[in-house]
Amino acid sequence: MAEIIQLEVKNGDKPTNLSFTDDILSFEVEKKNFKSINKLISIHSRNILSVTLDKSNDVLRVVIEAIVPKGKLKLKLKTYSFEAIDEEAVQSWINTINLAAYKDAKKAKHFKVFINPIGGSGKANKVFNKLVKPIFDAAKCTYDITMTNRSNHAKEIANKLDLKSYDAIVSVSGDGIIHEIINGLLSRNDAAEIDIPIGVIPAGTGNALSICLLGNDHGISVPHAALNIIKGVPMKIDVCSVTQGDERYFAFMSLNYGILADGDISTDHLRWMKDFRFVLGTVQALLGDRNYDCELAMKVVEDNTERIKQRYNNAYNSSSPSSVTKSKTLIDEYGTINDPTPQEWTKLNGDGYIFFASKVPWISRNNLVFPFALPSDGLLDLMVVKRDKISKTKVANILQAFNDASHVNMKEVIYYKVEALRLKPINKENGYISIDGERAEFKPFQVEVHPKLINIISMDGKYSYS
Ligand SMILES: Nc1ncnc2c1ncn2[C@@H]1O[C@H](COP(=O)(O)OP(=O)(O)OP(=O)(O)O)[C@@H](O)[C@H]1O
């Protein structure tokens, strides 16, 4: 039986116990508006931000700051305070609980925070002050804030930042600022030695990385994301280098050509329509019978959707990580495909509807397009839907199926695991190419995956697929 670590305290005049067992802290508090009725509070150690001893006003108090569930999906910050009886016992109890609460993660981290004031339709600053700041303060974390004042501002600062002064760089915006931070870090002279992790607060319109880290339900929840930054440990992710003409830059999410890129980028001016703009843009592209003829060359490691699925199942279903330490090694153990034997550049010429390569499983909320994407297998997942013998209705069905990833069972959807690819649109002067969700120049591009270049903060040490 697990050891119960108990501390006797007083709640008002009444003696009571704070007990900790099996990673759960539990105690009784009076029910609001019902003085004589108690309710049991149970808090998992990962939700405890800090336990401290308050000696002000000549009374010794144990103060517990925690993030507790509010309804099914939300979390809220709560403070509990009890009068301590024995100073020596309380100090040793507090040390034990704080150790259990943080495990491998560093306590009281110091962050460099970037807030994009135009991110998420101008809400990012309010999101930080109202939701993130109280949680960081309760966890005794400190921070220097930069409000970005132009495009590439975060990139320029990340490029020159004294990285030794911080435990993590935190982005309070959408995926665009994360893209900038990664590009700033990887264009430094000391890029090869960088190990500072990036923490993600979803405060933009596109928050795909946060959804990948925390799942479809929690990925846009700011308290979940703040907790993940406080309690998480670095998780390595692959980054792609993209060459377009003379330019070279880095992408951490996706490269997209075809109706999905058109649907996203061509409707950028219709942001007020929220998610509906993607539907509208994609339908327009479908009905407009646009042509996506291209030359696609790739270094294929795996070209059979069934085998790709099997490898994914081996990676994620054969072991269910129960702690941060165990899950941290899961990616290293299973994330790399054994004996990759890349074929020569395979060429796939022709017209199609979708040419979409990604390092991340979710491209947006409710769109699990790449359920086999792994953070650090050194490979890009490429999805191709060819035009041959496929109706427009079928294409619409495929798009709808992204919701529950059932498109992977449709024979028209082909997946490849590739180390590198080159895409050259043909018979077309203008069109849309989207890289990390932003419009890129309409030019041929070449992509290569670099394994484990960047660290992202994660509590679970893996992406979420649900
Ligand atoms: N003060 C600023 N004014 C204008 N643009 C800015 C400013 N600060 C940052 N940016 C730019 O805003 C872009 C969008 O940021 P980000 O993607 O993080 O937020 P978002 O709300 O998700 O935006 P989007 O809707 O474009 O995805 C970034 O690429 C960045 O270059």
TrEMBL record:
InterPro entries per UniProt: ATP-NAD_kinase_N (IPR017438), Diacylglycerol_kinase_cat_dom (IPR001206), Lipid_Phosphate_FormReg (IPR050187), NAD/diacylglycerol_kinase_sf (IPR016064), YegS/DAGK_C (IPR045540)
Domain of life per record: Eukaryota
The keyword Transferase is assigned to this record: yes
GO molecular function: ATP binding; lipid kinase activity
Tagged with keyword Transferase: yes
Any one GO BP annotation for this protein: sphingosine biosynthetic process
SMART domains: DAGKc
Keyword line: ATP-binding, Kinase, Nucleotide-binding, Transferase
A GO term from the CC aspect: cytoplasm
Domain DAGKc: 106-246
Name assigned to this protein: ATP-NAD kinase-like domain-containing protein
